[in-house]
Specification:
With 687 residues, this protein is an alpha+beta fold. The chain contains 17 helices and 34 strands.
């Protein structure tokens, strides 16, 4: 197996939405004989975009998987989504890869999301090849696209192939290293020829630059280059491979996936420059242990994706980290402590699966159906040599929406339907808000949530309404109060009596609630004091202005009285509640609104528009930082103002803006917000 693993490659296609990653995958699968015709995203005929929602919106919303043979070598391919709504689990997908084909659009060049995705590739410490796609399109501009790599991405691009013509005149590529040209035919085949005379001097200049860049990436090569003034072809090949694998160099190629122009070039680069699984650094474990990427090491695998297949059921997609795995094997899930029986190993080819004969070793991407308790993020291993992979962290959800059934009484059905999607999409979070009663679905953006709801409706025949959730306002006090809460009731027989005196005062923001027992001399028996505290807390949970919980206040219970027969815990609980309500009227109650920290990433040209928009949302801009043509703007904004921010930012920036958002603090709401919230809270009472 070791000999086969030396030439095995496992890589991911990464890039911003619309750059043509899925079309590049189609091109590679066509060239290697997996498919016999190029599918088109516009027609919904690609192998890897199979979900109805993907076909409808003409873009990937989940990763696609395939494998093929190239020159008798096995390659595993992962096609990752590029829309900002669906890249939340990119760190998990990159864990499964040993290299990346990073795709950039020749029309648009690198975008803000490109920079973020490149950062994920660098964080995963993976070598990359950049492929500038769509050279045949109107407005394709190779120089602009190449320059955007240097300006926006933290890398040293090394141009290996330059285009011969562009837009409708794109007809081939020049191999700078070999100083030859490939002119394409209509079917994607090519003819090798001399470099056209009009670009020959450019190719020669670029070759010298390329050799200098390769030499600079390695001290020994640099010394040899300075001494001899040149490098041999073997030196160049070895230096390039070493520089790519260390991350010092990033080769750049170009082509057109839809015209099958560039497939041979990419396949050869993948084979020659990416490392094999055997060259992978040891895998880190949660306990500090490491596991070598070797077929001779004990078995371990990381489940990085779960797919719900209508025929096979739940598929657990895993990367073999170490050792080998065969069908009909018992393994241990170290994440849950459960033992699992592996049935048949499957290889995924788009929406179909085929049985894998024999065993799978390091680097293989395999799927297993119907495991009893295996989830995304779990590690499976040999139970005699336990290992838990230290999985990368996933980003927090950015936005939440409330779900409701079309017909009352079917809340549990809605919750159950959407809950089944969580296994498949690790970046969705489903909760019930105990405060508001809402079923909340959280995700990476508005489109992410909408697509999830569409899936739930289609798969589980559930009618779900999507609505903006209630903002979690809070209430507190600005003043103090000293009051008596007295509950006395006599209705024949044993009565009810509870009497307490309290002082209420505000506390600093975020300090919560404090109850101070200052009773002396037995004014209130000890067994009744907790009841006063409970009555206050229950009343505070229901709010005084608009029904939101009251926070950040202190109560001193300093006096009271009791009746030897009529007093009880219930009576003092009611007395505490009455005391709180009376104090709330005097202590100047105010409404607090949640404020989030928003970081917006946009091209420099949109900076003014975005800052103006944030200010119109009552935002306070904290600062901005521009790098490589992209500006990061940080601002504190009331949560209510950014619940619908994703589509607004997309519209404002032509789809080029991205943002992150996290809760930061509460602050006093202005009068116009208070009036609106209080009026809305009163609406049911008038119904």
């Amino acid at each position: 197996m070791s000999d086969a693993l030396k030439t095995q490659r496992t890589y991911a296609l990464v890039g911003h939405g619309g750059c043509g990653k899925t079309s590049v995958a189609e091109m590679l699968l066509l060239q290697t004989g997996v498919i016999n015709r190029l599918g088109r995203i516009e027609e919904g005929t690609t192998v890897l975009d199979t979900e109805p929602e993907e076909i409808k919106r003409r873009g990937s919303i989940q990763p696609g998987f395939a494998s093929y043979e190239w020159n008798k070598n096995t390659h595993f391919l992962i096609d990752t989504p590029g829309d900002n709504n669906f890249v939340g689990d990119i760190a998990y997908l990159l864990t499964a890869a040993d290299g990346v084909i990073f795709t950039i659009d020749a029309v648009d060049g690198a975008k803000p999301l490109t920079k973020r995705l490149w950062g994920e590739v660098r964080k995963a410490d993976l070598p990359a090849i950049i492929f500038i796609n769509k050279m045949d399109r109107d407005r394709a501009d190779f120089d602009m696209a190449f320059d955007s790599i240097s300006s926006m991405l933290d890398t040293k691009p090394v141009l290996l192939y330059m285009p011969i013509g562009q837009q409708e005149d794109f007809r081939g590529v020049a191999d700078i290293l070999a100083n030859t040209a490939y002119i394409y035919n209509e079917d994607g085949s090519f003819t090798e020829t001399a470099v056209p005379g009009d670009i020959a001097s450019d190719v020669e200049t670029l070759r010298e630059t390329m050799i200098e860049n390769i030499a600079e990436s390695d001290e020994e090569l640099m010394e040899k280059y300075l001494e001899e003034g040149e490098l041999s072809d073997d030196d160049i090949a070895i230096g390039l491979r070493k520089g790519v694998r260390s991350g010092e160099l990033t080769p750049v190629a170009c082509g057109s996936a839809l015209q099958n122009r560039g497939s041979n070039m990419l396949l050869n680069l993948t084979q020659n420059l990416f490392p094999s699984p055997l060259e992978r650094s040891p895998w880190p474990g949660e306990d500090g242990e490491q596991r070598k990427s070797s077929p001779d090491a004990p078995f371990s695998a990381f489940v990085f994706k779960t797919i719900a297949d209508p025929f096979a059921g739940q598929l657990s997609v895993m990367r073999i980290l170490s050792g080998t795995l065969a069908g009909d094997t018992q393994v241990l899930n170290t994440s849950t402590g459960d033992k699992e029986r592996i049935g048949h190993l499957l290889q995924i080819e788009g929406k179909t699966q085929k049985p894998l004969k024999g065993e799978a070793g390091p680097g293989a991407i395999v799927a297993v159906a119907k495991l009893k308790n295996v989830h995304t993020g779990n590690t499976l291993c040999d139970e005699k040599a336990q290992f838990t992979f230290a999985a990368p962290a996933l980003p927090p959800a950015l936005i939440s929406y409330a779900l409701a059934p079309e017909e009352k009484g079917e809340e549990d059905k809605v919750y159950s339907a959407v809950h089944k999607l969580l296994e498949e999409d690790f970046c969705l979070k489903l909760t019930r808000d105990a405060e508001t009663g809402d079923i909340l679905l959280s995700g990476m953006g508005q489109l992410h949530i909408e697509i999830a709801v569409e899936r739930a409706k289609r798969r589980f025949k559930t009618n779900i309404l999507l609505k903006t959730p209630k903002v979690p306002y809070r209430e507190t006090f600005k003043g103090k109060a000293d009051v008596q809460g007295r509950h006395k009731k006599q209705s024949g027989g044993r009565g009810q009596f509870g009497d307490c005196l309290i002082r209420l005062e505000p506390m600093q923001r975020g300090e919560g609630y404090e109850f101070v027992d200052e009773i002396v001399g037995g004014a209130i028996p000890r067994q009744y004091i907790p009841a006063v505290d409970k009555g206050i807390q229950e009343a505070a949970a229901r709010g005084v202005l608009a029904g939101y919980p009251v926070v950040d206040f202190k109560v001193h219970l300093y006096d009271g009285s009791y009746h030897s027969v009529d007093s009880s815990e219930m009576a003092f609980k009611i007395a505490g509640s009455l005391a709180f309500k009376k104090a709330a009227e005097q202590a100047k109650p105010i409404l607090l609104e949640p404020v989030v920290l928003v970081s917006v990433f946009v091209p420099d040209d949109f900076m003014g528009d975005v800052i103006g928009d944030l200010s119109s949302r009552r935002g306070k801009v904290l600062g901005s930082d521009s790098q490589g043509g992209v500006t990061e703007i940080r601002a504190h904004v009331p949560m209510e103002e950014v619940l619908q921010y994703a589509p607004d930012l997309r519209s404002m920036t032509g789809g080029q803006g991205t943002f992150t958002m996290e809760f930061d603090h509460y602050e006093e709401a202005p009068p116009q917000v208070v009036d609106k919230v209080v009026a809305k809270a009163a609406e049911p009472a008038h119904a």
